[in-house]
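In this section we walk through a basic example: taking a raw amino acid sequence and producing a predicted 3D structure, encoded as discrete structure tokens. The instruction is simple. Fold the sequence below.
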Amino acid sequence: MSTVSKRLISPEEYLRQERLAESKSEYLRGEVFAMSGASYAHTVIKDNLARSLGNQMEGGPCRVLTSDMRVKVSATGLYTYPDVVIVCDAPQFEDKVFDTLLNPHVIIEVLSDSTEKYDRGKKFAHYRQIPSFQEYVLVAQDRPSMERHVRQADGTWLTSFFEDVAGTFEFASVPARIPLAEVYRDVPFPQPPTFSG
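The resulting token sequence is shown next.
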């Protein structure tokens, strides 16, 4: 992300601009941050997850939304676009335009070199302020690796790792599971280095 403007604007002005914009931007404390485009691998992983989860959630209380759905962290004022969101209660929105979700249950972010530190650190700290938020999933795009953070009853977070491409990732807070091979279907991993000697 890069700062678009140093002039501070209100959340209302951000939403007005964002709803007319051709590209997406995040917003925090008066500043607008342009979002860069996603790689092929990032997009394939996100689409694989959304398709599989959407099929599994069909007919149930939860709905899967992709990165066109803006999420607001009311406690901190962050507006952002997670890669995949699962909402399980009646969706709550900031206003009558119905394009800014307030109550995600699960958030999934596909990691990239430019966003990994932010997604793991400050962004996760923002997300933890959402009362409905129960599960955070981080997905590597350069190797088979999924990381699950689940909110516990005492407010702590339990972390689990899934790194076997022959294994299955199981969500803890929604009734869904997905083989890692399906998450990474058609993803071109970087070639391992070769050594001559």
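Looking at the output, two observations stand out. DSSP finds five helices and 14 strands in the chain. Residues 92 and 180 are 31 Å apart (CA to CA). In the next section we compare this with other chains.
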